[in-house]
Protein 1
Amino acid sequence: MKKKISALLLAVIISLTGCSSVGLSVDNLMHPPKAVGDKAEIQSLVDTVAGEGHTLKYPQSGNFRSAITMKDIDSDSVEEAVAFYLPQGDIATVHILVMDSIDGKWQTVGDFKSQSTAVDSLNFCDLDGNGILEIATSWKTYDASVNQFSLYIYEENSIREILTEYTSTNVLSGDFTDEAGEELIMLSLFSEGKDAGAVLLDLNENKSELTSLGSAPLNPDVVSYAKLQVGSIFEGQTGAVIDGCTKSGEYNTQLLYFNTYYSSLERIAFTENVPYNQALRSYPVMSEDINNDGIIEVPAAFKLNIEKDRTDRDAAASIYWCQQTSSGTVLLISHKAASFAYGFTFDIPEKWEGNFTALTDYNNNEVTFYEWSKDKTGDALFTVKISDSDEALEGYKELTKTDSRTYSLKIYESDSSLILTQDEINDYFKLM
Ligand SMILES: [Ca+2]
Ligand SMILES: [Ca+2]
Ligand SMILES: [Ca+2]
Ligand SMILES: [Ca+2]
């Protein structure tokens, strides 16, 4: 039994070490959809346009990973089709092919040749706010963290191409200015010949080119993006939340938003030397809306206290979930202890602040919460034991269960003021 858990634990630890990044290639997992009805007609149109010996190409990152993507671009409740193909030939480059069903017949509305042999990502955004989506495409270059960007605008049954000089590692879209349609934020990792940075782009008034509304430097230590989000970063402010992974395998968070007063792209980097304002962390915990108030919180995670020379136990983690405010200060939303090894968190009650720790015993699959005072563990308060048996172990009470694990609880006899009831522990305990 112990062995099985250890294997499980090992798998967890392996998957947690090192950075996983967004945008890994899944080319070999993808197959075109089976052709039925419209799909058969689209497939046959692609075959005709792309010619003999062509190959379909799949965007390697982002939300749209099919060679042929169906999307209602012009908001008439009927989907259009966007395909990527590589024609046969020695110096062939990938084409983007846009098709629409006009008068009941699938037709080409645009076919453009890129300068690339691979597609990084496909996206749809409404930059001019006219209800018709623009097609945003990132093309791979020889440098893995640099993609070339082009935009395609659908107008009166044809597509117009806007080529740009802009390159990026990832592109995000959203209404960052709180008016007049969406904008794009281009994020670039540090690479040879390019500094880490972000630029906010908008389509100009006569829809002929992308213009910059502002730029900001980003942390050059970030080597991959672990999680990218667009959402509310404080009351009334949309921004980009960038969880990054550093070369040394740590995680950090940067926020980007457009400051309308100064007309500038601002970055918040959480690098103050205080717990609530220090997002650099060794744990793979990413920003999220932890309290469901619509605003994304940023985690600051640390190891809990343990005696300096102690090696038979490992301290669990402490996570401060923080929210940015419009005044520039940081608000503590919640404080949790967390066991990444066993996949649970525990809300820290106020009376525990500064007085507790939680230590993991990997041999016995236990996490025990203790009083902590004068740099030492004091009374044991309770133990959470994780087993693969179907019910709580003898002397323990069941806390919760998953398909493969049972979390059992033992509360110790103690005079400590930190002692909690089983109901309180049940309330504070949550699976990740
Ligand atoms: Ca349509
Ligand atoms: Ca539009
Ligand atoms: Ca806008
Ligand atoms: Ca929130």
Note: The mean pLDDT is 91.
Protein 2
Amino acid sequence: MNNSTAGLDEAAALEASERRERAKAAGCPVVHFDYTTPKPAGTYFQAFDELRAETPVAYSDYGPGFWMLLTADLVRDAYQTPEVFSSSATIPSVPHPDWTWIPTMIDPPEHADFRRVLNVAFSPRFVRDLEPTIRQDCIDTIESFVADGKVDFLEDFAKIFPTQVFLRILGLPMEHTDMFMGWVETVFEGLGHFGDFAEDQLVAQREIHAYFAEVLKDRRANPHPEEEGDFFTILASSKVGDRLMTEEEFLNMSEVLLLAGLDTVKSQLSYMFHHLANNQADREWITREPEIIPNAVEEFLRAHTIVMGARQVAKDTDYAGCPMKKGDMVMVAGPSASRDEAEYDNPAEIQLDRKVNRHFSFAAGPHRCVGAHLARTELAIVLEEWHKRIPHYRVTNTEGLVESGPQVGIEELHLAWD
Ligand code: HEM
């Protein structure tokens, strides 16, 4: 067993070695891309930039090992070719997950049945109707600390606001905010690791399931009136093909919403505010010209695409010169593809008025983020309401300005203003 395969059982270590040798024999660059170790903010983006400059595709021998697709054309193609790149596993170093996230891990054509249910709740119209409420939540949270002249940005704002939005959209009690934040944190700490955190992660997943099992029981026994448009009443009576969704499917889908919608927005906000706190010209631009905000949001999403997605090879294939075998994992490196020089001028630079912006922040293909419209709305509301009240601010911590994957985000960010 070499260093790269430490932590794997014997069979998995053997398979990992076979894959590594296969990559080497084909002349595919072999790297050790450990995306789980916290590193100074920006390090992973730079590492992707450097690797992409050398090769469009690589093999990482971290953990069980995975192929890495680094360019915009390969990432787009993989997301759009589910018959080769399946969603049966979606974390690069976890080829055998103990869970089935729905609809995330369901391939077409079955995927469309589940997706249809979600499309309604996250449609632009639904989000627009809720906008005044979520804007007020955002204002209230900012105003709770504006007079203090400082804030622990992630703990006291960026975790709270998306959780409030989530509870509002799904019609759950606002008092459950802290409980939801705790679950999300535990599950995300465990993601991508193949050992240490797995037990805590499974406990949190069991608690999440127990919570939503109660919600299902309640909505099946006491459905809300149709005109309320209650999400879980609709979900509890939703059909997949010609049958009702099973309890297990309901729970798995609820868990996905929780995991997909909270930590993502928090992480995106961490990069946005880190950049703006350190960049007076951009801060002033946003404050002076709030019309730039929708474009600025796209640029922040592009420059710091946070999800290192993954797919599992569904059939043996020679792809971009690499011999991939059924069951192999492939990192679909959105953070790299969104900064591909073939598509953007000066991709590492943040230009708030950048025109061309087909980034991979929300993936592509059938699993493209169902919450994209909601996320964009949340991010824009934060930029608008924050800069009306706090136009100038600075970062005050040097410790904790670190990131790690597979969903990168700055781990601690303290801001202060005069
Ligand atoms: C900045 C914020 C967000 C980012 C960067 C993001 C990113 C992504 C990405 C990359 C995927 C594709 C995953 C894959 O196929 O493996 C995805 C899927 C998904 N996202 Fe988001 N997301 C964000 C916010 C949200 C929000 C607010 C919600 C809803 C509460 C949400 C719900 C979902 C769901 C349900 C899926 C699964 C869609 C499917 O499999 O068909 N996301 N998201």
Note: The chain has 16 helices and 15 strands.
Protein 3
Amino acid sequence: MTLVLFIAVLVLAFGRVMKASKSVQVAVLVILFGAVFAIQIGLPEQSELRQATGGSVQSWVILIVLLGVISLYTFVIKGLKSKAHTATAPQQDGPFSARELDRYARHIVLREIGGAGQQRLKSARVLVVGAGGLGSPLMLYLGAAGVGTIGVVDDDTVSLSNLQRQVLHSEERVGMAKVFSAQLALSKLNPFVTVLPYRRRLSGENARDLLEGVDLVLDGSDNFATRYLVNETCVALGLPLIAGAISQWEGQLSLYHPQEGGPCYACVFPTAPAEGLAPSCAEAGVMGALPGVVGSMMAVEAIKFITKAGEPLLGNMLIYDSLYGENRKMRTERRPDCPVCSVGGRRRKA
Ligand SMILES: [Zn+2]
């Protein structure tokens, strides 16, 4: 009997070393014990082979029942443990769980963020417009940072030419709606974050509904019509807006919040460039890592704004020229005659 058990242990050890699949290991064991049973049942009691493999069927039956009970017990305990694990996972309000404290430990030790700042991140609701080049690093870092609720608006699907820079998506999700791909990516990164996917184009009809109730809007869209619409809706609702844009090798970002004294987007860019003067990324090209830099800077500004750390980019625009490795900060001012945010200003038609 000991010999047979020794062979069984050898089979398991060999299987583990060779990285054989569980089903192969089980099959070998079934053959081994099948042979032992055949010997016990088929051969006469005095047979040497029968004596060498245990002598009687009963002892084997007892052993197998015992092993069955032990594995059933381990299986039940494992199931209970994983149930307890999922039950403690997503929780938007209330104190941090032990896993969250561990996850955000490097934030919590920062003097400017601390436990209070991390709690602000957890209760924050942000809306990201565009799940493309800028939206990718932006959402990954906001998700990793523990921003509790991240809404994302985009009507596009993932295409192969996106993957040179849109690191949120992946080759196996080509053809999937970007908002769902984003939701999938963030749920894998941080289960404590809720992603609200809005698969639609931001329009005059839905903008107000989508932006209402959020704490901060982040615009990573790729066209002027959307940027103006996001800005007008933010001004109308009194919401802070962090907007970024990139082209070829250069990008810029700023915080627009007229209520706090800074300009709105339309103060800085009163008119959209004429057709053809500002070609899109598809027409003009864009260096893949550039949105990684500018989108991450937008995430930095968002985290600072939510946690009230440092100086926000209010009334300042940060310009990054990657081709020459230069950063510039430019003062921006509110225009008294701005059609969007000035008191008597006529609202730009959405
Ligand atoms: Zn303005």
Note: The two ends are 84 Å apart (CA to CA).
